[in-house]
Design brief:
This protein is mainly beta. Among the domains are: about 120 residues; about 140 residues, no CATH class. It contains 16 helices and 53 strands. It has a 51-stranded mixed sheet that branches. Strand 3 and strand 4 form a beta hairpin. The relative contact order is 0.03.
């Protein structure tokens, strides 16, 4: 009992002595430094002033220290405590150990070099090896503390001040066994090196953290910045204790869940850990801008590799999943392609893939959908696939694929500004996720559905630009090829168009090819500046190929099916109705881009027509008709256009059949000429002839024909042609010259009139005679609405006269019939012998497509005279003639010219006293013949009286 009382007595005495005893400076420093070294590592301890006092029965020895300084050179750590109170345990002191029991400190300042980390106050309890700490802190710079932990230099720009409470239990040798942290902040700049190295500016933060020996539980981490917010929770697990991890390094397993909203897309670089898929991170943070992530959700499992000293070596994410809902984002897809703006969509990401699905606008057209997929996030090299579904104007769609570095429209020689219409376009891009990716590493495709497309070209037709419109196409294009198919109107002509393009590669079949197919009404050719209504009618089917080879040579090949086409050649009087097979083949080529096209061959095949044309000297100005067979004509020709625009044609050949010109049996033209367009000038043709034989009738050709003819359109305006009659070589000539634009005067002359009349198809067997036909041909005005109309039968008219002298009529069935009916058998007998010789024959006439009118036809011979008037309906092949037969013409005319008596008995006519009147009507080949027998023996005066009476009775 006495011993027990001795201990507290001694203690009281010792405590009383110590209460007024000041320890010498540095007395406790070695022991305390040893304790700190065992607890937190090598430190430099400074205890400038220390004062002992009685601390109580449990920890009776208390020491108050002012201006304590603890330094750790490895981490540039400095702890300054203006007032520190700690107590030593009594029993260890008896054994010579200074073991700390409790520590109290106020406003301890922690800094690294000269940068403040924070201010903390609290207490520490130590029981044997166990340590417990309660602390409250304020003005702690979390960013600076992170810099300190990772050994980096601090800057004032990364200040992030927090305040809160901290509780910890653990062992000096085993480390932390349990801890908790609660803190809040009113904002600042947060920086986490290696993971989030970019400064993150935050307005408000809340943190709740629980730590055990090997786990950290993040109960809550809330960050707010304006309207933006982010909330995280999760855990951090270490397979070994924290102390051992700090000393030796190791692995940390991370599990996080987060959600947020209203986060600016430009802040994604702050939220995406730098160690996670750096290449995708670089693309996302550089290609996405503006807008907000309205909703954010993520789950992540990660592994942190920590070196000794708590330095992070690398950060791995074996599993991550998240969703982001964003709006009003701008997406730069690739190169200088127009960005998508006002994008709204969702993003999902995993360890392997980052995927964006969105809608918005791109180059002022609607982005119906955008799918962006970054693959292989879990490996070093990633690829990105971009698919855009666009809907809007063709012009803006083309501008997208024409941008750097694709230039697809430029490769196609397309100017987007010339296009109109709408298109639904899908663009796909795929390329390695690298910086400055070369174009050869980019896979790009585009598919477009074009509607109501329109493009206007520089070329003009009739003063109007060549226009393709009403286009509906499907277009597929990539870096190597382009394919387009669909229909459109070219100058209002419906066509089917195909387009193929090879941009790259060798040994390709072609560089470019266009195919145009269409069925057209040939009247639509006028839209192309081709006025062919005088020559063509009905419908035609065309198939045209335009091809550019790898060597830049180009060719045009065309096939036109003319089976349903009406074809007419007014000059050669050849025509083909619809339904008869016919076709046209065309081949053009050029060797260089700036060269004009040359005609390689043109082949026209139709019933009774075969035509082959080639370019002669490859200059594009001289063409050779290698072969022309039309009807019975077989010709060759050289054609060129002179400097005045006149087409010059030199025609040679064995046979030229022009029998149709005066053949009344020729069928009516299938096409009638249309009036030329206002202001349009007819094409001028100048034709030179050198022919062996020319047929103007079914038989008896003209030989050795040469001369020159000039046409204005289809009208022969001027001619000077000469030929010869076979055997006796008598000359035949035709001369024609214009009187006005609508009239031409002509003279047809033959030294052997009988041969010419027979050649022209006359019904009489005429021999000899000098024949001269003179007249004026008039082109009448016409206004035909329908090119196939046959109502304009009087489009031209010839008026003139015919004279022939000293000719013989050997056979004339109608004349013989007339003489027989008039009881002039003696004269008829001449036809069985040498025929009737006439001194002269004359007549005035008018000829049109419909009718031949004869006025005052007079055939004079010593034995007979014939006077004839009337007309021939050429379409109906009907005649209506009336005339007079004057027998013994010389005697009759002598009687009629006797003074006083002759005039009285002949009725004042000089043709004769006695004559027979007749009429011929009906079919041309077998007309009805009527003879007035009374007039045969009646003098002229009486005959005139009878005719007058007959006229009165009819009235």
């Amino acid at each position: 009992m006495a011993k027990l009382l001795t201990i507290p007595l001694v203690t009281i005495v010792l405590a009383g002595a110590l209460a007024f005893y000041r320890l010498p400076p540095g007395w406790l420093t070695p022991s305390l430094q040893l304790a700190l070294t065992e607890t937190i590592g090598n430190v430099e301890l400074s205890l400038p002033k220390a004062k002992m006092r009685w601390g109580g029965w449990r920890h009776p020895l208390g020491i108050r220290v002012h201006n304590v300084s603890i330094k750790n050179e490895e981490r540039n750590l400095k702890l300054e405590i203006p007032r520190l109170l700690f107590s030593l345990k009594i029993l260890p002191l008896f054994n010579g150990n200074a073991e700390i029991g409790r520590i109290f400190f106020d406003s301890a300042k922690i800094s690294s070099q000269n940068d403040l980390i924070g201010i903390i106050s609290g207490k520490v309890k130590m029981r044997g090896q166990d340590v417990a700490m309660h602390a409250e802190f304020h003005s702690v710079n979390i960013s600076a503390l992170a810099h300190f932990l990772w050994g980096q230099h601090l800057t004032q720009q990364t200040s992030f001040m927090v305040q809160g409470k901290f509780f910890m239990e653990g062992s000096r040798f085993l480390g932390i066994s349990k801890a908790s942290l609660q803190c809040i902040s009113e904002g600042g700049t947060l920086l986490i090196p290696e993971i989030y190295p970019d400064p993150l500016h935050v307005d408000q933060t809340q943190l709740t953290l629980i730590v055990t020996e090997q786990n950290v539980y993040l109960k809550k981490l809330s960050l707010k910045r304006g309207d933006s917010y982010l909330s995280l929770k999760g855990s951090l697990r270490s397979p070994i204790t924290w102390k051992k991890l700090h000393k030796e390094g190791g692995l940390l397993e991370v599990s996080l869940e987060g959600k947020g909203g209203a986060i600016p897309v430009d802040d994604l670089k702050l939220l995406w850990p730098r160690g996670l898929s750096p290449k995708p991170r670089h693309w996302v943070v550089h290609q996405l801008s503006k807008g907000k992530a309205d909703t954010v959700m993520t789950k992540m499992q990660g592994i942190v590799h920590v070196d000794a000293g708590a330095k992070i070596n690398r950060f791995e994410v074996p599993n991550i999943y998240g969703q982001i809902g964003a709006s009003q984002v701008t997406v730069h897809y690739f190169g200088l392609l127009p960005p998508a703006t006002d994008v709204t969509g969702n993003c999902t990401f995993t360890r392997e893939q980052f995927k964006i699905q969105a809608v918005g606008m791109a180059n002022d057209i609607r982005l119906k959908s955008a799918n962006i997929v970054i693959n292989d996030l879990h490996i070093n090299d990633q690829t990105i696939d971009i698919k855009l579904d666009l809907e809007g104007s063709i012009r803006n769609s083309l501008e997208i694929i024409n941008s750097d570095p694709l230039y697809l429209a430029k490769k196609l020689d397309l100017d987007p500004q010339r296009f109109e219409g709408r298109a639904a376009t899908q663009v796909s891009l795929s390329f390695p996720l690298e910086t400055n990716v070369p174009l050869e590493c980019v896979k790009v495709t585009a598919k477009s559905q074009i509607q109501d497309g329109k493009i206007q070209y520089d070329a003009l037709i009739n003063g109007k630009p060549v226009t393709l419109d009403k286009g509906n196409f499907v277009l597929d294009v990539d870096k190597e090829t382009l394919t387009m198919k669909g229909g459109a109107s070219i100058q209002m002509i419906p066509t089917q168009i195909g387009w193929q393009e090879h941009f790259e590669g060798k040994n390709i079949p072609f560089r470019r090819q266009f195919t145009v197919r269409g069925d057209l009404d040939v009247q639509q050719l006028k839209n192309l500046g081709i006025y062919a209504s005088d020559y063509l009618g009905g419908k035609a089917s065309a198939n045209i190929h335009y091809t550019v080879g790898e060597d830049a040579r180009s060719r045009i090949e065309g096939f036109v099916d003319l089976t349903q086409t009406v074809m007419v050649s007014p000059i050669l009087a050849w025509q083909k109705p619809a339904g008869e097979a016919a076709h046209l083949k065309l081949k053009f080529y050029k060797k260089q881009v700036l060269e004009t096209y040359h005609l390689d061959e043109a082949l026209l095949v139709a019933p009774q027509l075969n035509l082959t044309v080639k370019e002669r000297n490859k200059t594009g100005k001289v063409y050779e008709v290698d072969h022309l067979q039309i009807g019975n004509s077989h010709l060759k020709s050289i054609i060129h256009q002179d400097s005045d625009g006149v087409l010059q044609a030199s025609i040679q050949g064995k046979v030229l059949d022009l029998s149709y010109i005066l053949d009344d049996s020729t069928q009516e033209p299938l096409l009638q000429p249309l009036p030329s367009p206002k202001g349009a000038q007819a094409t001028r043709f100048k034709v030179k002839l050198l022919l062996d034989e020319v047929f103007l009738g079914k038989i008896n050709p003209i030989h050795h024909v040469d001369g020159e003819m000039i046409y204005e359109g289809n009208t022969l305006m001027k001619a000077d042609v000469k030929g010869k009659v076979p055997h006796k070589e008598e000359k035949i000539s035709l001369s024609m010259s214009p009187v006005s634009p609508e009239q031409q005067q002509f003279t047809l002359e033959s030294a052997n009139g009988g041969y010419l009349l027979e050649m022209l198809g006359a019904d009489y067997d005429v021999e000899g005679g000098h024949l001269v036909i003179k007249g004026i041909k008039t082109e009448k005005n016409r206004n035909i609405a329908d090119a196939l109309s046959k109502s304009d039968k009087n489009s031209w008219e010839i008026r003139g006269n015919i004279s022939i002298g000293n000719f013989t009529i050997n056979k004339a069935p109608l004349l013989a019939r007339l003489l027989s009916a008039a009881s002039l058998k003696g004269i008829v007998n001449f036809f069985s012998g040498r025929g009737i010789h006439f001194q002269e024959g004359t007549t005035d006439f008018s000829l049109s497509p419909e009718k031949l009118v004869v006025k005052k036809m007079r055939l004079i011979s010593p034995s007979i005279g014939l006077i004839l008037n009337g007309s021939l309906d050429r379409y109906a092949n009907k005649v209506n003639f009336s005339g007079e037969l004057i027998p013994l013409y010389i005697i009759n005319t002598i009687l009629a010219r006797i003074p006083l008596v002759g005039s009285w008995i002949s009725g004042g006519r000089e043709d004769g006293v006695f004559m027979t009147q007749f009429t011929m009507t009906g079919d041309r080949q077998d007309p009805a013949l009527a003879i007035n027998p009374i007039t045969s023996l009646t003098p002229g005066l009486v005959r005139e009286f009878l005719n007058a009476q007959e006229s009165k009775s009819k009235v």
